[in-house]
Amino acid sequence: MSAASSRPIATGRSAAGMPTGRLAVWWIIASEIVIFGGLLGSYIMHRLAHDAFAEQAAHTNTWIGAFNTFVLLTSSLSAVLAHKAADHGDGKKAARFLYYTMGGGLVFLVVKAFEWTTEIQAGYTLASNTFWSFYYTAAGIHAAHVLAGVIIMGFVAHTAKRQLEMQRVELIGLYWHFVDVVWIFLFPLLYIAK
Amino acid sequence: MIENWVPALSSYAKDIDLVFDVIFWIVIAFWFILVEAVFLWLIVRFKKRDGVPAQYITGELKSEKNWVHYPHLAVLACDVVILFLAIRVWYDVKQHVPPTDETVRIVAQQWAWSFVHAGADGRLDTPDDIKTVDDLHLQVGKTYLYKLESRDVLHSFSIPVFRLKQDAIPGRVVTGWFKPIATGEHDIQCAEICGIGHALMPGRVLIETPEEHAAWIASKSASGAGE
Amino acid sequence: MVVKHADHAHEHGDHHAEQGWVSKYLFSTDHKIICFQYMFTGMALAIVAGFFSYVFRMQMAFPGVPVPGWGLVTPADYNMLVTNHGAIMIFWVAMPVLIAAFGNYLIPLMIGADDMVFPKINRLSYQIFLLSVVVLFISFFVDGGGFAGAWTMYPPLMAKAEYSLTGTGSSVFLLAIALEFVAFLLGGINFVTTAMNARAPGMKLYDIPIVVWMIVIASILFMASVGPLIAGAVMMLFDQQLGTAFFDPNRGGDPILWQHLFWFFGHPEVYVVLLPAIGITAEIITVFSRKKLFAYKTVLNTAIGTGILSFTVWAHHQFIAGIDPRMANIFTITTLIISIPIAEMMFVYIATLYGGSITLNTPMLWALGFIGTFLIGGVTGIFLGASGADIYLHDTYFVLAHFHYTFFPIAIIGTYAGLTYWFPKMFGKEMNDTLGKIHFWGTFIAFNCIFIPLFFTGMLGDHRRIFDYTNFPELTTPMLENLRAFATISLVVMLGFQLVFFYNFVTSLLWGKKADVNPWRANTLEWTTASPPPHGNWAELPTVYRGPYEYSVPGRKDDFWPQDAKS
Amino acid sequence: MADHAAHDHAHEAHGEHTHHPDYVKIWGVLLVLLVISVAGPFLEIQVITLITAFGIAIVKAYLVVKNFMHINVAAKLVTYLVLTMLLFMLLFFAGTAPDVMESHGSNWEKPDWIAGTAHPPAAGHEESH
Q1: pLDDT the model gives residue A41
Q2: Predicted ipTM?
Q3: Which of A172, B201, C396, C560 could form a disulfide with B111 if both were Cys (CB 3.0 to 4.6 A apart)?
């Protein structure tokens, strides 16, 4: 198994002038852009076409959305501070900032769960009509990304704490910022445009 | 070319056949034969011979690039001709509706066609409308506007002799037109998969002379089939 | 045969620690083993999908007669068979074999790297792919039977169990497709980053062999186009199982939206599988005509141009599907424009033959066969891209014959070309050339005999996915029935000729002549290491000094000039 | 040997010295923008709502992408890549919207939509108009 656990020489090369990991994360982000792009593009078409959407959107809770935006922006700040710490070779500090970011992600998910519970109790479910279908689908796929980010970040923080694989701190941060950017667009699309 | 096997019975069928023929002559009879001939000739001509080494041609020189560049411009010119013709015919068939004499409603469902004919007064949505299942009765020489609907899934209304095809989409009413130019009885197909009965929704289009058509309307009105 | 291969790996000295059979072949992170996993899985599924085509073609030719090996074909069977034939051939045969298998094998070896940059992600990609195969097979056996609404999965047929009668099958099928996409996204990211970052020292952008470029461009196209369909698949799954109405027109959705989401992916997908096959052809025709590739940069530019243009043409699949007719004009123009780079690419390949010294052995025959038949696929596409003619031809057998004339050269001829060409490197044995030629001519002639008649049945009005034409009086003429029967008999003949290949493959693997390091006297880097290459590919990774196609350079003794030779 | 190379690379990657701007300040700007975008709709002028909602979203996204994701230090290629993907999405929108967004096409119409029966209200929703 030693062959499997040691890294190929290929991984260390960077003919394109960028570390392989960072390049790969940007490619992941590129393919995520089109996933969210297709979904949000479809949503925008419906939103512009149907006045009924505006009436439905009025029932979303802007304050909760705004609070979650605040949480994600702040968690992005700690993610980038973790990157800075990792660049300075301080794995412990980087791990601590990553834990803060994970905390932010968890707060986001808890708030989201609370928000959805209230809405479902009020009778706005996934199948109520197209607006709510888009609302839950888009926010749901985004929340799945947050959850995945939190889990992966746990592993990264665990290794970074031992001063290992420090470049991963930047990579998970890149992904996290992307998830943040998606929410930056989801927030006005789902909550503000009424 | 198609009319050798499938009669061209609508006013625009010949135009669609023309597009097909023009593309056939340009693309198959000229380009395809030419390219395959050159291709096969090169294989035979430059088959390995002892003592004859291959030439070193990079293809980066301008004079060499012209070998592919000129044919390439010729392709572009052919494309323009085909485009012009294709879009013209498309415009006549799908985009532009000429003045029509009568309207017929076509409703697709799993797995049957129903047709609502205008009846004696020549207008839809009046009490003398005639509803039929799977049989579309038309009068030769009249221009028809069709309104195509679907009750459940996608279907495609296709009359090969008219060269007409249009998908029926639930939630939409698609309009279009056709003008039969000769009498006869022909197939109507469903050309979009619509479930296990997809092969079991054949219709018939009956193109009748004015007298026959009037007689058919009269027989339907007399039997009270018009609701 | 796998054991035999293992012996070879040991003979050539595996520098790394001994591995058990399981960790070596089932959980390997070695790109070559992952290539074999993808290739053999793809081939196994090709047999399944080929069997499906045999069953439904027999039903077409002899309606109502029980098919040997299947029994009576019901309409539900028929729809399920055509749907899964199409889906399997594209998603589980063409993609894994052409992109994943050849990509995995060739990219590291051709750019002089010891492995993919992310070997574990590579392994994960195959495991997810295998899972998708399992899920696909589950979909055949669930309550109601396998999904039967055509590989395009158009709603509302796909979305509602009351219409398709295969509620569970549809959802499981969709899940299998989604898993397959995830596998190829992971694989694609690996291919792209490997080719971009892990090139051998000295290898500049224009020193990369065309096939690597093509696989990379194909991976990029896939990654850029599949997103909307992944989003659409989630929406569709919710429509099926959770009662949403994204595609239900009665409750505010729109079925046409799915068609756009699907074809925005579906059209680039054609080029995703086309480009690797074109790349394989480039490698083979240069080697066996001992010629430098004509205008390397032009090939590359046309490939990139085709890739970008392929994002602008998708709605030509929907001309009569109810899109706005004014939009159809725009898509007609873009569709005909895309004929220009593809035509240029074909011209370049033909020009490459000029002045060559052509050896007609098995791989070369396949490569030339690819060019010859793909041309038919290309030129018949013009009929369908021209909106005026498409009104009649849409959804007829003309369309079917057209895309089989593109996909068969791509997926079958391209694969055989690549497999026979790289077989000595992959397995360290030479293949029997005579049997290879018999297999080529049998397959090639029989293939043309299947699909040329189908162009005619399409022109005569045969529309697609009909299990029995007896309900249509105009489609039961003796001429049409004879054409259909002829196509079916040709199919059986063609499938029979594949036995020659399997015989040749197995006997060559077991008793074939041992292959040299560089039996074809080719330039590219994979021919500089042992056959088969050891784990890690080279004892010392190569350095590159020149482009990949320096054949017959004047003034040199040899007619080839390996990329890693200093002088 | 492999390990050694990977190690070298790790040093190299970290030796790049990404410029780290004052992240807390950028975070402050982002929060101010968030407050504006939430406050915008209270003016109840549609144009201002649109600007404060989507204009600010774009600005925020730009700030995050530039400063947190360091797109300006990543190779130019990455910028082109992201822009290309966005361009493809615009293409998708432009090709799809004429069918999905409109109630009338040049040869079709959506009767349910025109009649206003396409959107049944949600269960908990009282008709307000």
Answers
A1: 94
A2: 0.91
A3: B201
